[in-house]
Amino acid sequence: MNKTLPYKTKQFFFVLIKISIVVGAFYFIYNKLANNESLQFYTFVDFTLKKNVFTPKNIILLFFLSGFNWFFEILKWKTLVAFVKKITFKNALEQSLGALTASLFTPNRIGEYGAKAIYYTPDFRKRIVLINLLSNLLQMAVTVILGIIGLCFLTTNYEVNLDYYNLAIALAISLMAIFLIGFGVKKSKFTIKGLSLEKVRQFILKFPKKKLLLGFIFSLVRYALFSFQFYYLLQLFGVDITYFNAMVIITSMYVLASIIPSIFIFDVVIKGSVALYLFTLIEVNELIVLSIITLMWLLNFVLPSIFGGYYVLNFNFPKSED
C-alpha cells in the first residue's frame, strides 16, 4: 500500500525546514558575536565607538563597498549560469543570497552547492553544482595569484618566520596530487550519481572561455573591493600604513587563511589568527586587527545573509516546465 503524506503536511514541513534554516543561520551569527573568546562583543562595540568609526560618511562608504562586492558576485553567477540556462539579475540575486544564508553554518560553506542547485529542476542540478565549483575556483585563483605576489614582497621586506622546508614539501605534495587527479580523470570510469570524472572534465573544457574570462574579471573586481575595504578600515582605526604595504599584508593574509584547512564556523577565528601574526610585523594593535576582521565579516557575510533569509523563507521548488 502506497502511503504518501497529505499535501498540507508536506507544505507544513517545507515551511518548517525554511524557518529552521533561517533561525539556524541567525543563531550562528548571534553565537559568534556573543561567545567570541578572542573579542568580546561589548569590547568590540565600545572600541569602534571610541574610534568614531560609525560616522554617516563611513557607514555609507562601507555599505557601498559591501554592496558592490556582492553586486559583482551576483553578476558573476548570472554570467556563468547563462551557459546552461539564462536567468535574470533578480534570479541570480535570490540564488546567491539565499544560498549564502543556507550555507552560513555548514563546513567550508559546502551547503552552497546544494542550496543553489535546488533552485533548478533536476536535469540542471549537476551542471549547476559544477558551475558553482568553477565560480569558487575563479575566486580562489585570484586569491592565490595575488597572494603569492604579496607573499614575495612580504618575505622580502619583513622578517617572516616561515618553515620553508615544510612549505616546499606541502607544495610538492599538492602538485603531485593535482597531477595524479588529472591523470586519474582521463583514465577513471568512476561515477558519482551518473556523473563521471571524464564528463566533468569535458564540461569544464567546453565551458565558454569568454564567460570564464568575465568570471575571472568579476572575481578580481570583488577582490579589489573587499581588500580596499580592509585598507579603509585600517585608516579609520588610525593605522599609519601606505596602500601598497597594506595590500602586501592583506593579500598574504587571505591566501594563507584560504589554504589552511578549516570549518567555516571557525573561518573568522582563522583569518583573525593569521591577520594577528602578519600585522604584528608592522606593530598594529591586536584589538584593531580583531575589530576589522569582525567588521569585514559583519559587512560581507552577516549583512547579505540577513537579506538572504527573506529569499530562503520565500523559496519554492522550480516547476518542471521551467
From TrEMBL:
Keywords: Cell membrane, Membrane, Transmembrane, Transmembrane helix. The keyword Transmembrane helix applies. It is a multi-pass membrane protein. It comes from the Bacteria. The chain crosses the membrane at residues 12-30, 59-77, 133-158, 164-185, 212-234, 246-266, 287-313. Coiled coil: none annotated. Pfam families: LPG_synthase_TM (PF03706). The keyword Membrane applies. It is found in: Cell membrane. This is Lysylphosphatidylglycerol synthase TM region. It comes from Gelatiniphilus marinus.
